[in-house]
Amino acid sequence: MMDQSLRTKKWVSPLLLAGGGLLLLAAAAARRLSANAREIALLNPMARARFRELVRRIEQELGWTVVITSGYRTPSDQEILRAQGQTSTKAMRSSHNFGMGIDIVCYRHGRKLGKASSKRAWLESGIPQLAKGMGFRWGGDFTREPDRVHFDWQWGPQVVKRWQDSAKAQFGEDWMMNGNRVKM
Ligand SMILES: [Zn+2]
Predict the structure, then answer these.
(1) Residue 161: CA atoms inside 13 Å, Cβ hemisphere, count?
(2) What's the CA-to-centroid distance between 151 and ligand 1, angstroms?
(3) Residue 77's CATH number
(4) pLDDT digits (tens, 9 = 90+) for 86-111
(5) pTM of the entire structure?
(6) Which domain holds residue 89?
């Protein structure tokens, strides 16, 4: 007669492995969610819910996993990126400095959509169309320096000065450090 404990043992380790694997997957999902949630929490309160909804709809309706790679940037964050040649936009002129823009990278079925992906690949994903339908501006449409990972809300060259003036009026000397709290 077979020892009952041996028979049980045969099943225990695969089950533990499967259980452990699921836990790891759940932990990875939670980390990703909390990283996106942390980025969204730093955005301007005027736009937070809209960005949260954008990410939710890309994931649920289009099936892409979204990772926010850049959200709110302080003036020094902006100048560091400029020094690295990653942007030509000066501090307090970017939607990121007011918490009104995000950069995203998206994954689906082993594919990645990022900075190096073509405009066509982005358009085939349906993401820019969905975002623009919600009122966002897509960096892939920029004529000077297209930036396909970039999405912002109610932004444009014509509004930058209004944002800066509002920031100065609300925060005085600290206006540069409070871009993501400015109300318009
Ligand atoms: Zn951006």
Answers:
(1) 1
(2) 7
(3) 3.30.1380.10
(4) 899 999 999 999 999 999 999 999 99
(5) 0.83
(6) 4-179
